[in-house]
Amino acid sequence: MATTGSEDTRTRMWWGIAGLVVILYALIPVLWIVSLSFKTTDTVTDGNFIPRSWTLDNYAQIFSLDIFTSALVNSIGIAIISTVLAVVIGTMAAYAIARLDFPGKKTLVGVSLLIAMFPQISLVSPLFDIERAIGLFDTWPGLILPYITFALPLAIYTLSAFFREIPWELEKAAKMDGATPLQAFRSVIVPLAAPGVFTTAILVFIFCWNDFLFAVSLTSTQRSQTATVAIANFTGASQFAEPTGSIAAAAVLLTIPIIIFVLLFQRRIVAGLTSGAVKG
Amino acid sequence: MSIESAPAPTTGSTQVGAPQGRKGKPVRSEGKRAERRLGLLLAAPAAIIIVGVTAYPILYAIWLSLLRYDLRFPADQAFVGLANYATVLTSGYWWSAFGVTMLITIVSVAIEFVLGLALALLMHRTLVARGLVRTVILIPYGIVTVVAAFSWQFAWTPDKGYLAALLPDGSAPLTDFASAMAIIIVAEVWKTTPFMALLLLAGLALVPDDLLKAAQVDGAGAWQRLTQIILPMMKPAILVALLFRTLDAFRVFDNIYILTQGSNGTGSVSMLGYNNLFKAFNLGIGSAISVLIFLCVGLIAILFIKLFGASAPGSEPTGRR
Question: Which residues cross the membrane (chain A) (predicted)?
Fold first, then answer.
């Protein structure tokens, strides 16, 4: 249809093709696991991308195990609480680092960089000992605390890079008009920083939801075991049956909440990043 | 909440658009003190949590690396100095894992940067289905690594997978070093390119459109606008994205764990550390490996800062008013 040779049509066509490539890139591995989750036991090893016969048995089996349903609840609760806390704490710290002069600033930056770099695997065993000693082992706070800690460097780093690009004359103007630093922060900077904060919130939520190493090390029962651990345990539990369908169903269930979350935040991110709030 | 610094003179409404003329006004020391107090107050929660949750465990991990400490023989604990490091560094396992890790890190971060920048530009500029692309791209990013790894594993499993079906009969790509590494890198790149793109997009949003339009009017082509305006202005975001992804890629674990379990020489340094801690139960050796990984990662960060001028937040002298 691009026979008109019009510059605009051709451009749109190329953007369309590029968009299609991205969409396929993003969706094919996901659709594959969805496909596996609907395959019957007989056809799960047929290698077809689209199931020949469909079934919900894999899901029924997953939902009959309350070890998995409780793990899903734990995952959602722990990830959301960790995200909110980490973003609030991280925004405060990043603002202070980017804009304010206070003693210990360099130390805080240095230490949070150390945390960002430190391989989590080496913290697992000491944390295991400490949490058992103080009763945090196998509790929600026992996971939330390390999640916040390891999300903070990411939050602080990303946000302060953002904050340094914000036109601070606005804050200065507010202060000259008599606003306190806190007022300037709340009424001028927060709206400008919102895009960065929302982007950061997504990064942090994904980090918490993704975690496997801490979850498998610092939990032991359904009280706090998260979904990533449940799916891994499930793999091991069905060594005599063909576990592919069940793993796929569990994997899809693990993916659904994040898709919902991404959809909810997507609009705000797009609005935030495209609102032009930062433009002079 | 009750930080009252300056005696607020209500000189009219807070007008957007700072009057440039008043720049030379001296900062009152009272305001300076209030700023220090606010700074401490805002930074305190982060500092307390970071110190509380990690300072002791980090020191403990370093201490453990200096001990002979096998969980199977807990009574046989002794200070051995750097003997664990000597054991690790003279072992072929460490250097093989190190090579594998470096290869995965360099190749996947390089691919991710190019793809991520293209993706960020697409999300920023596209005229077609922009919202759909932006939503869809968050899925690989958001999906749990273990889940994605299972998808790739099933896809490449002979007889089961749609991708394995494309290969000649009898090939098992996950059991051969080169193809397994390629699959691990594909899994890494697929999963984390959106991370890169999101961070770059955040930087891209700060590049003023007016400037690009002006450059276009002046005759700058798309490539020139990218290399002369967009990339330099995005530098902070690019360095954050590269630094974080490099540090993260160096710790690659989940994908390898699901895809190959480190067989056929595909294990990373993190796999090595994990196996020493949770399979060999050797806390001393495992901690030494962890500390070595940390040192490698520290070197990478220093290289970034020295070579590319990545600035740690707050470390730059010009950030103050």
Answer: 12-34, 72-96, 108-128, 140-163, 184-207, 247-265
